[in-house]
């Protein structure tokens, strides 16, 4: 069976962009692949974290994985720092990476902008991400569009290592959804929806109550021409809402355009409120059921043991190929 790997950072405020860009695909791929889903806590510490909050967010993301429909009987769910192979492989890949290519990563450039010196962890972030993926001989990586450059770098590093040490890594492909690969902020559709934006109405968090969902969508930035049409360049706000509607319901954007012809933004937004609230209600219920249960930690322990047994096999092969150890 081919293998899928993906991860989400435990940084709170998991939102509709994370769901439509990644988590929804996690669930859909479970029947056809062996799926490995990770909570990437070591990526989270590339920026300062409060230890108690980090612990809480790790369990929040784990519970959200299950709440959206990841099935621990089928898929492996675990916390990155519980499997030592991630850090170990990361070093081996660091020795096969170049500062030039890492300096070109847009995420690093954004996060280190106007700073004389940036944390080295932020710089090495994509190498740890490559280690996550390559450790599991991954074929497919479901992620949103913002991770495209990181996946390309992972493929470059894997290809480079295979050139030196043939047969070491499986070269993975990214897997991007048709709709939802880039959900934009509701208050500013030129920026992507993000966990860290100050304005809570810029995003819909997966655990938002219906009243908050309503407020955020009704306030969402549109334009003044009153036509419900997909046009990213000239109508980014309306296009983003159409994209969300389509990704949540499976109805195509062109069908939505036809159905809402002659109707106003108010009607369209009201329907989108209903669609979003209906989609998130079962996720919130399941989250509340599982978040504080002992089952959750047991699932993560089992997941780490299963992940570790795959990781150890890969590490033995990689070390042998590199000529490391006894
Ligand atoms: P993270 O935690 O920022 O985001 C988790 C997933 O959500 C996607 N995403 C979005 N998709 C659509 N629209 C948006 N506005 C949006 N915002 C976020 C992200 O693309 C991602 O799929 N580097 C990764 C975590 C990671 C990882 C990995 C992923 C670490 N190791 C190995 C895959 C494989 C990240 O920061 O995701």
Describe this protein's structure:
With 326 residues, the protein is mostly helical. 54% of the residues lie in helices and 7% in strands. The chain has 13 helices and five strands. β4 (140-142), α8 and β5 (173-175) form a beta-alpha-beta unit. The model has no long low-confidence stretch (mean pLDDT 97). The chain binds tryptophanyl-5'AMP. Residues 5-9, 17-18, 20-22, 40, 43, 129, 132-133, 141, 143-144, 146-147, 181-183, 192-193 line the site of tryptophanyl-5'AMP. Tryptophanyl-5'AMP (TYM) is lined by residues 5-9, 17-18, 20-22, 40, 43, 129, 132-133, 141, 143-144, 146-147, 181-183, 192-193.
Defining key terms:
mainly alpha, three-stranded parallel beta sheet, binds tryptophanyl-5'AMP
Offer a concise description of the structure.
The chain is mainly alpha-helical and 326 residues long. Helix content is 54%, strand content 7%.
- What string, H for helix and E for strand, traces the elements in order? EHEHHEHHHHEHEHHHHH
Q: What percent of the residues sit in helical stretches (DSSP H or I)?
A: 40-55%
Over all CA atoms, what is the radius of gyration?
Answer: 21 Å
What is the overall silhouette?
globular
Bound molecules: tryptophanyl-5'AMP
Order of strands, main sheet, comes to 1-2-3
Q: How many DSSP H or I helices?
A: 13
Poorly predicted parts: none
What is the mean predicted local confidence, pLDDT? 97
């Amino acid at each position: 069976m081919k293998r899928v790997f993906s991860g989400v950072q435990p940084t709170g405020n998991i939102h509709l962009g994370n769901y439509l860009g990644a988590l929804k695909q996690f669930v859909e791929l479970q029947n056809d692949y062996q799926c490995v889903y990770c909570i990437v806590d070591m990526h989270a510490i590339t920026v300062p974290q409060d230890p108690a909050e980090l612990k809480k967010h790790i369990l929040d993301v784990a519970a959200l994985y299950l709440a959206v429909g990841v099935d621990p009987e089928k898929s492996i769910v675990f916390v990155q720092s519980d499997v030592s192979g991630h850090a170990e492989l990361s070093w081996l890949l660091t020795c096969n990476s170049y500062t030039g290519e890492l300096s070109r990563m847009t995420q690093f450039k954004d996060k280190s902008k106007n700073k004389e010196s940036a944390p080295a962890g932020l710089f090495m972030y994509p190498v740890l991400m490559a280690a996550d993926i390559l450790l599991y001989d991954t074929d497919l990586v479901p992620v949103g569009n913002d991770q495209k450059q990181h996946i390309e770098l992972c493929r470059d590093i894997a290809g480079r290592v295979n050139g030196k040490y043939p047969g070491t890594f499986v070269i993975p492909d990214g897997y991007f959804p048709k709709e939802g690969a880039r959900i934009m902020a509701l208050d500013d559709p030129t920026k992507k929806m993000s966990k860290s934006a100050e304005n809570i109405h810029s995003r819909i968090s997966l655990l938002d109550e219906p009243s908050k969902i309503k407020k955020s969508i009704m306030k969402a930035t549109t334009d003044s021409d009153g036509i419900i049409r997909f046009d990213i360049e000239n109508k980014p706000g309306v296009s983003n809402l159409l994209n969300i509607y389509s990704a949540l319901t499976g109805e195509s954007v062109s069908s939505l355009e036809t159905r809402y012809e002659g109707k106003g933004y108010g009607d369209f937004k009201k329907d989108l409120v209903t669609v979003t609230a209906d989609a998130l209600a079962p996720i919130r219920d399941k989250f509340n059921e599982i978040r504080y249960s002992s089952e959750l930690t047991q699932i993560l322990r089992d997941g780490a043991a299963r992940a570790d047994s795959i990781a150890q096999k890969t590490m033995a092969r990689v070390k042998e190929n590199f000529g490391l150890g006894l």
